[in-house]
Each structure stands twice: as C-alpha cells, then as structure tokens.
Design goal:
The protein has about 40 residues and is an all-alpha fold. The chain contains one helix and no strands.
C-alpha cells in the first residue's frame, strides 16, 4: 500500500465516529487468538 492510499484510508477512518461501546464499525477487522491457558 502506498503512502497516499494509507493516508486516504486513515483520513476516512478518522471521520467515522462512534459512541460509547459501539465498536460495530470494526467488525471483521481484527483477529483474536485463544489464550494459551485455561481459566476454570
């Protein structure tokens, strides 16, 4: 990705707003891994 593309994407993301705990705009944009230990 070139700098110009990255900057345009960043500026678009900066304009998107959210309130409180609504992180739905991040859906499918992060990866999670299981913890290496088991909590019982």
């Amino acid at each position: 990705m070139e700098y110009r593309e990255l900057k345009e994407l960043w500026e678009k993301e900066e304009k998107d707003t959210f309130e409180g705990w609504d992180f739905s705009h991040l859906e499918n944009r992060c990866e999670e891994e299981n913890l290496p230990w088991i909590i019982t």
